[in-house]
Amino acid sequence: MFDALLNAFNGSVEQGLLYAFMALGVYISFRILDFPDLTVDGSFTTGAAVAAVLMTNGYSPYIATFGGFLAGCAAGAVTGLLHTKGKINNLLSGILMMIALYSINLKIMGQANTPLFGQDTIISYIPESALIWVMGVVVIIAKLLLDWFLHTEVGMALRATGDNPKMIRSFGVNTDTTIITGISLSNGLVALSGALVAQYQGFADLQMGVGMIVIGLASVIIGEALFGLKTVFRTTLAVVLGAIVYRFVLALALEYNMDPAYMKLITALIVIIALTIPRIRKSIQQKKVAAERGRQLSSTAGDSIQKGGGIRA
């Protein structure tokens, strides 16, 4: 029993760290920019496809992975341009780009599946016993770089664009540029995650990005619900930990012989639970505060009546 849980934990941490890049990308678009970007389902596969094709053509896995990151940035930039310059609704912009990327990804790979067995990959360079530690350090470095970026002038403008675009425009900031920059960086991180996941599992598949936006949202929401979001540093750390927790929940479900066909249903239920628990908790706290105020008012009114009665006497 303990060994099974330990194996599930180790596997979930490894996968959670790989998907943490994707969760950070979703955090940028959904939480910072308030932009419901469905490009994620396509750009995740784009990163995997570009990296796989470059590696099978003899390129270094590091160059291939960086190429996947750049391809994701390009996809995100197009989504941003469709919304800002084409004046297309943000949700529809992401849907259109997601659909377009399906054909683009197929064209990149030339087939529905590109195997990487026998290829040198970043994952193959790392000893299996050290994979968690190495990936953990890489993810923390990426998280700290994102924290630093969000505190720069451009990053502050990015955050202000999501909070109050009218206000930031009044200070002379071009919100079109900040939106394109943010969505580009978001999808670059998503594609980076796709490139690493493809190397971890040994192949890039045309369908591997399906439902990825829900997984990213689940990671973000779980992290925020469990670990809070008071500061940028704490929130990005919560997102990374949320990706690991989400993978651990799925690993436990599989460990107890849950039908894999129900994995998407479990994901949806996790998101629903993570969304409703904070609201229920807030409602309970508000009721407690209201009850405490009621008791204080009753006590004050009682004291006033007693004092008034004393005066009349």
Strand content: under 5%
Helical region count? 12
| Element-by-element helix/strand order | HHHHEHHHHHEHHH
Question: By helix and strand content, what is the structural category?
Answer: mainly alpha
Q: Classify the fold: give the CATH topology.
A: ABC transporter involved in vitamin B12 uptake, BtuC
CATH architecture: Orthogonal Bundle
State the CATH class: Mainly Alpha
Count of beta strands: 2
Question: Helicity range of the residues?
Answer: over 70%
The span between the termini is 76 Å
What is the C-alpha radius of gyration, as a whole number of Å? 24 Å
Q: Oligomer, anyone? A: single chain
User: Shape from CA axes?
Assistant: globular
- What's the pLDDT, averaged over the residues? 87
Largest sheet: 2 strands, antiparallel
Low-confidence stretches: none
Strand order of the largest sheet: 1-2
How many structural domains does the protein architecture include?
Answer: 1
Describe it for me?
With 313 residues, the protein is mainly α. It has a single domain, classed as ABC transporter involved in vitamin B12 uptake, BtuC, CATH 1.10.3470. 80% of the residues lie in helices and 2% in strands. The chain contains 12 helices and 2 strands, in the order H-H-H-H-E-H-H-H-H-H-E-H-H-H. The chain has helices at 2-32, 40-56, 61-84, 90-109, 122-125, 131-150, 153-163, 165-170, 175-201, 212-227, 232-255, 263-312; strands at 113-115, 203-205. Strands 1-2 form a two-stranded antiparallel ribbon. Helix 2 packs parallel to helix 4 (90-109) and helix 7 crosses helix 9. The protein is globular.
